[in-house]
Fold this sequence. Notes:
Elements: E1 7-11, H1 16-27, E2 31-36, H2 41-48, E3 52-55, H3 61-71, E4 74-79, H4 94-115, E5 119-128, H5 142-162, E6 168-174, E7 177-178, H6 180-193, H7 197-206, E8 214-215, H8 216-227, E9 238-241
Helix pairs in contact: 1-8, 3-4, 4-5
Amino acid sequence: MSLSRLRGLVTGAASGIGLATAALLLDRGAEIIAFDLMESEGAGRLTERGADLVLGDVSQPADRRRLADAVGSCDFLVNAAGIMRAAPILELQPPEWDALMSVNAASVFFLSQLIGPNVRDGGSIVNVSSVAARRAANLETAAYAATKSAVLSITRSFAHAFADRGVRVNAVVPGLIDTPMQDRLVEDTARIRGRRLEELDRDRTEGVPFARLGTAEEVAEAIVWLISPQSSYITGQAVAVDGGMTMF
């Protein structure tokens, strides 16, 4: 699958699913603008391979506008930036809620609003949601789950908004994926519940029919497919990459 004539943006490109997606797009010949909060090893690996790096905070309106100006006309947008905050559902405070919503949901809406009109006809927007949007299995991530449910609603709305130009807007719904964010979540949840890390890890994978974590690269393959012309008649969809955790 060659994407050699495509140019686009990946947010959250320096780590996890964003990094794997940007790297795979580069492998397929696409031209990448990588957006992340700061310089890092992951960002350096992308720039060494020819990606253009833009630094900024997706939660800040001025940074989003600056990013949109830097991108200009493009073929795709991948909204992969995200944060996780673990706290018991009865103890979460408004500042944590606001931070999660601004990074995980508001950035998806407003970057789609700013950049979507400049995505060329027939292009693609892919948003990264989470299995947490469909399952309430972890009450320490209730606010995070709410943001990822919002991502699915935003995806459907923009799919309608851009359909007249053939711009596809879809979401991927990752399950338990082996990323630094997932590692931090397990550590924080184990601490909050007073459980051993190994026990919690085992319990979580027992809920996956494939009985293992997924990889960021497996999610990236789904994202790149949704960017490619092979998914030309698919829009407004939520594609689960979760080892069977959700089967609907």
